[in-house]
Specification:
Length: 455
């Protein structure tokens, strides 16, 4: 262990002492963005400095299954391989809703020989950030995350219903940017803010989005890995808080018919580590070639990587025309009909907003892939298409329409394999193929309603 690591661990131990922590939730985000890991007594956490889990945990489906073949399986000896979890001391946070003093610590996944597990979510993002670091760059990101709050629903066959607020009545109609509609759920949001403050999550603004019971939280811009950890923690926090108020919070891309879907827009700019300047703007405040190339790379590769931004069958229900979601990779200034929006800003804050990402995406993978597409654009000097000035919905649908198509495209995109790692793409695609197979085995209510007695 290096001196730097020893110092970080000593600071973490002092923090645990200060907060009198008795239990530690040792967690890693799997491919779905779900928290996996172990809860361990504080003493054991300090003694071991590294738990073990099967590598297959990083290749689990959203239903809890995993493909029978993969890099996590030793075919010769017919055994599941273990990985070592190492804590990242910078991620330690208190669990504000726990009865006993409990801490969260996010871990990285390592093979027994000390290599990062390539198909672990955090590893994928670290890999891409290392590419930027080699160029002397640091990405600055700011996620905007939409979600719905709904009435409790214990029967998955029944449609979701809007939640009941302080007035005792369910929300009706669309209340975009309504302050009063947010105030209906003041007790819920006060707890969310309190829990976020206790966990030092730097959230910015809360607004009511277009849909009934749909909200949006904006995060302050910052380091990509730190923001990924924050969004990962925030999702868990919101779901837990909603439970405590007899509601559900969902990050499904399209949880309710006839309502807009939920997105996770990602704003990105790039800082030169030597000068501290935004490489998207020159000294005169004009857009640089790197700015154009970043957009060009996203236009070329985002359609090839939609399986990461829209990872479930449900995700594609969001991506329809005139429902506040993009169907293209056009770019435009302050244009919300395009997939790549450039907000009005000062030169120092010039950035690109990726509007394709669904709220159901794994934030680590979504950030890694957004940055990977832009990186390829800058490395290969890919020129973008002309800026779209009008309504981009009037143009062609430029994105895959199904998960099946998206999987075929990412499996055949060698450039993305090279940046994200071939092993990751292989595991990710296998997991999604399994989920798709499970979905196709289910008979839907629509089929029973319209086919049972009519065909």
């Amino acid at each position: 262990m290096s001196n730097r690591e020893q110092m970080q661990y000593a600071e973490m131990d002092a923090w645990l002492n200060e907060h009198r922590v008795t239990e530690v939730e040792c967690m890693v985000p799997d491919l779905t963005g779900t928290a996996r890991g172990k809860i361990t007594p504080r003493e054991k956490f300090v003694e071991e400095r590294g738990l073990r889990l099967p590598e297959a945990v990083m290749g689990m489906t959203v239903t809890g299954n995993f493909p029978e073949a993969g890099p996590y399986y030793d075919v010769i000896n017919e055994i599941d391989l273990d990985m070592v979890l190492k804590p990242d001391p910078s991620t330690v946070r208190i669990v504000p809703w726990a009865t006993d003093p409990t801490a969260i610590v996010i871990h990285d996944c390592y093979h027994s020989d000390g290599r990062l597990v390539e198909f672990a979510s955090r590893s994928v993002l670290r890999r891409v950030l290392d590419l930027y670091k080699k160029q002397g760059w640091e990405p600055v990101v700011a996620p905007e995350l939409e979600f719905y709050i709904t009435a409790r629903n214990t029967d998955p066959d029944l449609p979701l219903q809007p939640p009941i607020g302080r007035s005792g009545r369910p929300e009706s109609g669309r209340q975009s940017y309504s302050i009063d509609a947010v105030n209906e759920f003041d007790p819920l949001f006060e707890d969310i803010y309190d829990y976020c403050k206790a966990q030092k999550l730097d959230i910015d603004t809360l607004i009511h989005e277009i849909g009934t019971g749909q909200m949006e939280i904006n995060f302050l811009h910052g380091n990509a890995l730190e923001l990924a950890d924050s969004v990962f923690t925030f999702k868990r926090t919101v779901r837990e808080t909603a439970f405590r108020h007899n509601m559900y919070a969902t990050f499904m891309a399209k949880p309710m018919a006839n309502q807009p879907g939920s997105a996770m827009h990602i704003h990105t700019s790039i800082i030169d580590n030597k000068t501290g300047a935004n490489i998207f703007s020159d000294k005169n405040g004009n857009a640089t070639k790197n700015f154009s190339y970043f957009i060009g790379g996203m236009q070329r590769y985002l359609p090839e990587t939609m399986a990461i931004f829209a990872p479930y069958v449900n995700s594609y229900r969001r991506l329809v025309k005139n429902m506040a979601a993009p169907t293209n990779v056009c770019w435009g200034t302050d244009n919300r009909t395009v997939g790549l929006r450039v907000p009005h800003s000062s030169p120092i804050a010039r950035r690109v907003e990726n509007r394709l990402v669904g709220a159901d995406a794994n934030i680590y993978l979504a950030l890694a892939t957004t940055l990977a597409c832009g990186y390829l654009g800058m490395m290969d000097k890919i020129k973008p298409e002309a800026e779209t000035k009008g309504n981009a919905y009037d143009g062609k649908h430029q994105l895959p329409r199904t998960l099946r198509e998206s999987l075929d495209r990412i499996k055949n995109c060698k450039d993305i394999h090279d940046v994200l790692s071939k092993q990751f793409v292989t595991v990710f695609a296998a997991v999604k193929e399994w989920e798709l197979g499970e979905y196709n085995a289910v008979i839907s209510p629509w089929e029973r309603q319209h086919l049972l007695l009519n065909v």
